[in-house]
Fold these 2 entries.
Entry 1:
Amino acid sequence: MATVVSAPRGGLNVNAIRQDFPILRQQVHGKPLVYLDNAATTQKPQAVIDSLVHYYAQENSNVHRGVHELSGRATDAYDAARETVRRFLNAADSREIVFVRGTTEAINLVAQTYGRAHVGRGDEIVLTEMEHHSNIVPWQILSQEKGAQLRVVPIADAGELRLDEFERLLTDRTRLVCVTHVSNVLGTVNPVADLVRLARSRGIPVLIDGAQAVAHMPVDVEALGCDFYAFSGHKIFGPTGIGVLYGRKALLDAMPVYQGGGGMIGRVTFDRTTYAELPYKFEAGTPHIAGAIGLAAALDYLTAIGLERVAAYEHDLLEYGAQALSQVPGLQLTGTARSKASVLSFALHDVHPHDVGTILDREGVAIRAGHHCCQPLMARLGVPATARASLAMYNTREEIDALVRALQTVREVFA
Amino acid sequence: MSAELQDLYQEMILDHNRRPRNFRAIADARHAEGYNPLCGDRITVYLTVGDGGTITDVSFQGSGCAISKASASLMTESIKGKTVEEAQALFERFQRMITASGETPIDDLGKLTVLAGVRQFPVRVKCASLAWHTLRAAVDARNEVVSTE
Ligand SMILES: Cc1ncc(COP(=O)(O)O)c(C=O)c1O
């Protein structure tokens, strides 16, 4: 990537990175755009946009079906994308990488296949209080169908998981642990490697929701030792509509199929069907080929910058942000875990988050206000909603300063 | 601060947000709950209807953003003493006022006119109309939660 020039001290050259994101160059309501809604979705670098244009302009074809040249190229690019994902997650085998629509579909896939096969009446699934609805509802649907129970690990006030409770909830009825790597509301980075160790020492498999982790820190599924890891392309500078389910090969092999259709079969007769090998077994129908290619372009782009560097830069920016926000009179941060990434959720005394969001928007500052698809967590925090600024590698201290200035405007309006 | 923001957060709106009027429950009254998934907010509207369909008392409770709270508060003030049909007609005019394009002349709806600035903020229309949708459900004494979605 031509633009990845390292800044002094091996840091991140954020100005060069910003140049790669055309959308960041615009004004909103007459103010320079300050995009702080990265936990909802991230912006796309030119390299990703170009990869989509190139694919549709030069390679578009269906995969695995054609004898013709274009189909060969599309298939090669699609397979290469899977290998890129494998390398990115340090998975042992590219057959452990299943392309899905996003984190939500990845989790539903596991619930409807592994879950249906292994969870029965009286069994338990362990979740945490900070899960996104997409890591709650699929398990609820499964539990209702099977007569199983959800067990919820509580959080302490700073937004950290209660590890004592976690251990207590692991019983001989626990069939699966489902936990987010990074909370999209609190920013808490959960000690997933420890959680995996605790669960697996009891023979319990672990699914990690990596939606909010992968764009902010290196992830190595082999080192984590998890059984499933899910993430969405659009939260890591890639396209919407594409995501990844990593699954340990032995588990994927033993799992029943998900959706039926073309591409996932070995041989079909009206009496019976045999299924394709991994990972195709889980990829019925024409996949989001362009999406997979765009995702690979995003991962290549990010890898060239280096996730260690991104993590260090963002850590610094997050500290700066937390410090700057805590100076705003009446502002209270929600989520003050020792280990945090990307997210600054806050409440401004007496001002509803939605009003905060509207006023910041008119100052060019994009944040999110709402329950962030975490209603059980909102209930735990005792608030209907929070305002949330969420950072990515292209954000700067100047943008944090713009946020703080815009918050002064909020205070003036509501003075 | 932009002129549009000043239009939206007028003093009367901020005042009704700080000190909402008729902010109480009415025992044994018809009521309904409204929910705005965008804000995550819920309000309950209570209503008593006398002879001839006159709204003899109306109140609300709940939490919400400044726009939804002020709108609920102003609604209770402007419909008390009106008939249910008149309130319904007012809702329709109010809805037109807050969803009209910027150039459309602003209908004079008394105090409710201060909410005309919402038209510059399409995503906030649901906040301003939540109380009214909930009122309608309360009139019908529907016991379900109405949602703005
Ligand atoms: C922690 C977490 N999990 C899951 C999801 C769902 O991701 P998607 O909507 O891309 O499937 C999100 C997105 O907001 C998230 O933040």
Entry 2:
Amino acid sequence: MLFDNGFDVDLYMKNISNLKNNDYLYNNDNSNKIVSDKIGLQKGNMFKDEYLSYKGISPDIIEAKTEKDALMLKIYETCFAITDLGLYLDLHPNDSYMYEVYQNYVSNFEKCKDMFEKNYGPINNTFVDSSNYEWIKNPWPWDKDGGTKYV
Amino acid sequence: MFKYEKKLEYPVNITKKNLEMAKYILTGLGGSAGELAAATRYYIQSFSMPDERGKALLIDIATEELAHVEIISTMFRQLVKDATPEELKSYNLGDYYTEHGKGVYPVNASGMPFTATYIQSTGNPVVDLAEDMAAEEKARASYESLIDLTDNPEILNPLLFLRQREVVHYNRFKELYEDYKNKYKL
Ligand SMILES: [Fe+2]
């Protein structure tokens, strides 16, 4: 087992984050514009004033049930933040605050992906840290247990 | 080039078959405002974008739309996986089963196959972006209809996610459209 029981992926993220200015990133006027990656994935966007609910239906919070899923969920969340902030940065490449937040998510995504791959197998086919070619192994994302069995 | 990442953009885990929704959800893949049309439309348009921002935005949204093709295909597959041919027949999926079995094939909710007439590329970035804004709004409307047709959270949650992504894409396209309209007077 990779983690002790009671593993807290958010605490883990906080500890591995090597950015000194985390407090600045998430506690200032600019930071009021965006939500966390967790809420971002749940609702489908990172920018608060861009969220447009439909008939007041609120999507469920996504909860992980196992350690493996907690790590995969963190990959989903950071990856989503990168996707959404990336579209914004395509049009606003000089927004240095958003770029810093983006860099922070990229760094966390890489770390989580690395840890997941080392323990559970490849997410990209360039992961080769194993004696055999694990890329082909089930489950694939469209299989029912495709690393997404936490909703 | 594209590189595959062995994960979805948003989790899909549908535990019960639902042939009614399976039939409707296919429009999100193969309909005129579906994800396959979206991915293809933005991908081909990226080649005629006039500046760095346009090229980046179109290729990045196209890439995300491919992830949406994957989400809808996964949903369809999980919705029909455990169904018998008899059951498929009783939900008006007999024609589909004849041609495609329980495989994934891009058709709309009434079974009409995907066609390249769903996508446009005029070579004029302002015109293309106006097309893209309309396409995102149509996709949003179609997800809203699908949301109206179900109350199963396993189906609802991914649909709500996909709908919100259309809202975001529309906003990005609109911003670039207005910018180009002023800048290039096209
Ligand atoms: Fe879209």
